[in-house]
Amino acid sequence: MDIRVKVLFVCSHNKWRSLTAEKIFSGYEGFEVRSAGTEDAARIKLTSGHVGWADVIFAMEKKHIRRINDKFRDLLLGKQLICLDIPDDYRFMDEELIEILKGRVAEYLDITE
């Protein structure tokens, strides 16, 4: 049976950081990857469905952790909620952002392309 870890990446607007993370990590073996944003104007707005689906949630900043905890606390039991501490200084698929994401995520997940 194919066991896959469900990974959710969260930033504010789901346009640059979390969308980049979804794009680069969706090609990795053993993972299902989605992304969403915490703001009302997000490309894909974070819902209880996203949080319920995920095994591991990577938030880009502490404010995203707070928002997830405030809104979805009841759904977080047994899930890993991790802050990657990546500021909103990067554009979609920025090479520096990709390197930072790979380095930080590798601290928590066994990622091999």
From TrEMBL:
TM stretches of this protein: none
Organism of derivation: Paenibacillus baekrokdamisoli
InterPro entries: Ptyr_pPase, Ptyr_pPase_sf, UCP029416_PTP
Protein name, entry field: Protein-tyrosine-phosphatase
